[in-house]
Amino acid sequence: MALLAEQPDTPFGDVEELRNLLAEGRERGYLTFDQIAGCLEEVDVTKEQVQQLHAHLVENGIDVVAGDGKLAAASTDGAQPAPQPEGQPSATKKAELDLTVEPSLDSLRLYLRSIGRVELLTADEEISLAKRIERGDMVAKQQMVEANLRLVVSIAKGYLGRGLSFLDLIQEGSLGLIRAVEKFDYRRGFKFSTYATWWIRQAVTRAIADKARTIRIPVHMVEKLNKVVHVERQLVQEFGREPEAEEIARELQWTAREVKDILRIAQLPISLEKPIGEEEDSELGDFVEDDTAESPFEMASENLRRENVSKALDA
Description:
mainly alpha; Arc Repressor Mutant, subunit A; two-stranded antiparallel ribbon; elongated
């Protein structure tokens, strides 16, 4: 696989993070909007450059997908695609991809650029603002929040891939930041960022527990699940294989039944309408056995018995 650095026509060829991202996209065949947005966070780019990136992805056959795994389809010029004759397949199996059709990408880029313009606070400025906040100064509260939004983005990046989009993670973390600003006590001598980190992490983790899954898992169970996953990864590195529930339980000093229950709760639901097969002409529900339905043999036997009884009564 050729390195992107060797290709002079690659957009942002001098940005190592983006080169690595595009290399990953060509290897996997697709990228998500959250991955692209995360890479563009520190890059000051124009809309024309984003369109160049889009063109490069299309030329290299790299699909851009949403968080739910669906292809993002749109025309770059905004025109509607020509209708296909009924009963005939589309001329192109994959629609043209356009990064600009995902509203979160442009809005996220603008948001990151705006918070990047706000200067960080010194320790003395934090204390001064905290005193004004105690007196009910809403302007000081807004200044304290805006100056620490970059901390929210930094923490939110660590929770990508947990079921919420990057923008949602930033929004939930910002609510935790506001709570930290309201609770901050400068007299204890702590730096505000140290104090706010706990509130931001709590807000993000609770949001993931409440909103990331179709079936909500209680927060205390999410914390246990995180412990199980952490130990499981450690044991995989140690043993070179997937650990048994008993081995995880021994490491956590739990019972094997507790570990099995947590792993069972962690399973994600699967839609019965999920397409199956290469042609995707069947659904998962077609292959699920109905335990309450009668077998063909039982139905045939029942019909024969009814016919015999009917003949006997008519005789």
